[in-house]
Write a structure and sequence with these properties.
There is one protein chain. The protein has 13 helices and 16 strands. By secondary structure, the protein is of the alpha+beta class. The strands form three sheets. It has an eight-stranded antiparallel β-sheet with strand order 13-12-9-10-11-14-16-15, sandwiched between helices. Strands 3-2-1-4 form a four-stranded parallel β-sheet, sandwiched between helices. The chain has a four-stranded antiparallel β-sheet with strand order 5-8-6-7, sandwiched between helices. α1 packs across α11. The longest helix is centred in the C-terminal third of the chain and has 18 residues. It is globular, with a radius of gyration of 21 Å. 41% of the residues are buried.
């Protein structure tokens, strides 16, 4: 039997643990990335071959490149490591008739309008929204749905490019600026509330693992206004976690994810206490969420996602590792120092520390959910005083990203 070959498609440096897990499972690993990422600290000892392209989004160049590789290599699966790679890899799977997420379903996990439309069609509660197509329809929407709103790019990741609109008159100048890019956006009712995320592994269309967490501040507020980013595992026996788990199962089933990792976000409105779906991605969550989940539950989402794909390629049954029943949380921020000094933070619950230019952060873990929450609350003000960059110089921001 020939060795299973996995092609990891990465327009951004990430996914080390997935690559390692796939290689340690006995696979032949190939990395396809962009030339500008050639000097990143990839886990080279677990990569058998690496190929570079100037642009991983330029078609038909990408199809031609992978086709050329396949002339002498029997590639069993292609894995998209970054959110922006999901649609490209879905198109490659479609072209080569490979198993996994393909063109139509991939839109449910990349296109914010498609995911909302499908979620609402399957009975999942979403904020009121409309695509930016017909102006009369948009006027009717704003006459019926009270402001504020948010204007969202359909294809960006996380909170990138989102603009809040407090009055209907504010929308039209923004659309004028967008020009022919208007149809790539949607308008949505802004709902103030607490924001949560559920991070999952899915196999054969079923959620086999999930972890529910709560952001201290909505990611959009942190991304656009700065500040300290915090997320923590919810008490798994609490009502919040239980409801979010059920909403997440219904969401992933309704959107048709058959296998892989997922990061879904929900908001609980302050006014009505209801949970609303915000967005979902067929990937592992960023901002060190994966490391936090591993500390809390003993599951590395990157590694297990890779092993899920290997098992599927071999026609084998995947088995989860033994789970832990702990809790963890992440705190990080963009720092004004090039290499922030975290040595004054000495609590034994600190289990991981960030080492990245112009960033400060760590992960705390404990068997007690309340202890994690208390520590993160204590650190918030200290981070603001010790590290937080209000508005970093452009070169610092470039390094940070």
């Amino acid at each position: 039997m020939s060795k299973t070959t996995i092609l990891c498609f990465a327009s951004y440096y990430k996914g080390d643990r997935l690559i390692q897990a796939v290689k340690e499972a006995g696979c032949h690993t190939i990395l396809l990335t962009e030339e500008k990422h050639a000097h990143e600290p990839w886990p080279w000892q677990f990569i058998d071959e690496v190929f570079y392209m100037p642009n991983l989004y330029k078609q038909p160049d990408v199809i031609h490149a992978v086709s050329y590789l396949m002339r002498s290599r029997a590639i069993d699966q292609i894995i998209a490591l970054d959110d922006f790679d999901v649609e490209v890899v879905a198109h490659l799977r479609e072209h080569f008739r490979m198993p996994g997420l393909k063109d139509s379903l991939a839109r449910h996990f990349r296109d914010k309008l498609a995911m909302r439309t499908q979620a609402r069609a399957t009975g999942i509660r979403v904020p009121d929204f409309i695509g930016i197509f017909n102006y009369d329809h948009i006027r009717a929407f704003m006459a019926e749905v009270a402001p504020p709103y948010v204007l969202k790019p359909r294809g960006e990741a996380s909170a990138m490019g989102i603009k809040k609109i407090n009055h209907p008159d504010e929308l039209w100048p923004l659309l004028e600026q967008l020009g022919d890019r208007q149809s790539f956006h949607l308008l949505e009712k802004y709902i103030p509330g607490d924001v949560y995320h559920v991070d999952s592994l899915v196999d054969n269309g079923k959620v086999i693992f999930s972890s529910a967490s709560k952001y201290a501040r909505p990611p959009m507020n942190v991304y656009q206004g700065g500040g300290v980013f915090i997320t923590r595992t919810l008490d798994r026996d609490g009502e919040e976690a239980k409801q979010l788990q059920e909403h997440n199962k219904a969401l992933l089933k309704g959107l048709g994810l058959e296998r892989g990792a997922a990061h879904a976000e929900f908001i609980r409105g302050y006014e009505d206490g209801e949970y609303y779906f915000l967005e979902v991605a067929a990937r592992v969550g960023g901002a060190n969420i994966s490391e936090s989940v591993e500390q809390a539950a003993g599951v590395n989402l990157w590694a297990e996602w890779g092993l899920l794909e290997v098992a599927a390629a071999r026609g084998e049954k995947y088995k989860l590792p033994k789970l832990k029943k702990g809790y963890a949380g992440v705190i990080n921020c963009l720092a004004r120092q090039e290499w922030p000094d975290l040595s004054a933070y000495t609590d034994p619950e600190i289990v991981w520390r960030m080492h990245k230019k112009y960033h400060a952060g760590f992960i705390v873990a404990s068997p007690d959910a309340q202890r994690v929450e208390d520590l993160l609350n204590q650190y918030t003000e200290r981070f603001g005083h010790d590290f937080l960059a209000v508005m970093p110089p452009l070169e610092k921001a470039a390094d940070a990203h």
